[in-house]
């Protein structure tokens, strides 16, 4: 996307051919890469490859009736793994429903995500333990939740103390489509006026289901916050190192009391919005092919090979991905259905006659199948 002033400035450190270079104007971001080791780079690659293998396996499981829905994130691995590892030990994350990559950088059990999509639970992890809050299925709500939490962090005085054991920041993830909702504008406003330690991380994957980003905005999304007093930056969302460095810098700024900021990670949703969607109905294959050629995992592999990483490592990662897929598949098929009464629990604080009537009807209906099978 371009503006009337010309090309949008974008932070990029890895070219599509895997060549690493930090432009002089972004040296303050490049300092964060200098702190990384080869082991960190290998970790980034493993998790990008792992989450894609998991993602593809989940799509297959949904097609086989093992989940009601799956939300793919193929193509967005660099934005998620890079930003996820930039989140500090005290920080809190508020995701939407596609942040599988961010989840694994903070130890979320992948089967918990499947259980939620299967309807076994409502999110099988404890946000207090992981600081990774539950998926927000209702679009945009998590941005308001994050704004409120960040305001509380500020009110508690856990910002800008200089003590790394005390200072906290908050990050929230959302897509380009959510920026058209009032929730995001409200969150930007409240974060700005309260100088909250909040980083807004927008994964601009080009499509809000079937609506292109061009139908949602006439200016780059990273500028969306300026009217509220929230500065923004655009980063190459298929560059895992740039996503890590930019997120780390802005999370540091938030913890240090410099207020909120907005990061737009320009990336692409290669697959469907969800498994109930057919992207071939609304977007040209030529566009998808263009972005596939800029695949974030392929790009990072080229970078690692330039660092001397050989075939043995990539073969090991591929085998680990196959092993993970087997484990996920076996665990999913072995998963029992949740108790029927769970549907009716926690609807009201006190027993309700209509809910009891509905539960009795459903139990009788289900038992009729057992009688027919005798």
Automatic annotation (TrEMBL):
Statement: the UniProt record of this protein carries the keyword Oxidoreductase: yes
Residues in Dehydrogenase E1 component domain copies: 47-331
Pfam annotation, one family: E1_dh
InterPro entries, per database record: Alpha-ketoacid_DH_E1_comp, DH_E1, THDP-binding
GO biological process terms held by the UniProt record: branched-chain amino acid catabolic process
Leader sequence residues: none
The entry's keywords: Oxidoreductase
An example Gene Ontology molecular-function term: oxidoreductase activity, acting on the aldehyde or oxo group of donors, disulfide as acceptor
TM annotation in the entry: none
Protein name (Swiss-Prot/TrEMBL): Unannotated protein
């Amino acid at each position: 996307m371009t503006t009337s002033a010309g090309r949008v400035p974008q932070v990029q450190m890895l070219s599509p051919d895997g060549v690493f270079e930090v432009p002089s104007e972004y040296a303050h971001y490049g300092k964060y890469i200098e702190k990384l080791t080869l082991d960190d780079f290998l970790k980034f690659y493993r998790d990008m490859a792992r989450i894609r293998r998991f993602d593809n396996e989940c799509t297959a499981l949904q097609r086989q009736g093992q989940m009601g829905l799956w939300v793919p994130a193929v193509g967005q691995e660099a934005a998620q793994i890079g930003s996820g590892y930039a989140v500090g030990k005290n920080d809190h994350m508020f995701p939407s429903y596609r942040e599988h990559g961010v989840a694994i950088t903070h130890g979320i059990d992948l089967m918990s995500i499947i259980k939620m999509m299967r309807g076994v639970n409502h999110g099988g992890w404890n946000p207090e333990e992981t600081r990774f809050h539950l998926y927000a299925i209702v679009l945009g709500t998590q941005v308001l939740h994050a704004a409120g939490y960040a305001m509380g962090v500020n009110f508690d005085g856990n910002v800008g103390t200089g003590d790394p054991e005390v200072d906290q920041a908050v990050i929230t993830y959302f897509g380009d489509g959510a920026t058209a909702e009032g929730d995001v504008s409200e969150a930007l406003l409240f974060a700005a006026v309260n100088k909250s330690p909040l980083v807004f991380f927008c994964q601009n994957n080009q499509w809000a289901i079937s609506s292109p980003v061009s139908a949602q905005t006439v200016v780059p999304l990273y500028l969306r916050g300026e009217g509220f007093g929230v500065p923004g930056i655009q980063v190459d969302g298929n560059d895992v190192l740039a996503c890590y460095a930019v997120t780390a810098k802005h999370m540091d700024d938030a913890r240090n009391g410099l207020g909120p900021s907005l990061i737009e990670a320009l990336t692409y949703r290669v697959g469907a919005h969800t498994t109930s969607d057919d992207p071939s109905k609304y977007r040209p294959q030529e566009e998808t092919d263009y972005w596939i050629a800029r695949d974030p995992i392929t790009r990072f592999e080229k970078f690692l090979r330039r660092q001397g990483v050989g075939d043995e490592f990539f073969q090991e990662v591929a085998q680990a991905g196959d092993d993970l897929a087997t484990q996920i598949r076996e665990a999913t098929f072995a998963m029992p259905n949740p108790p029927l009464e769970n549907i009716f629990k926690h609807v009201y604080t006190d027993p309700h006659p209509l809910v009891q009537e509905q539960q009795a009807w459903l139990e009788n209906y289900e038992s009729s199948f057992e009688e027919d099978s005798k």
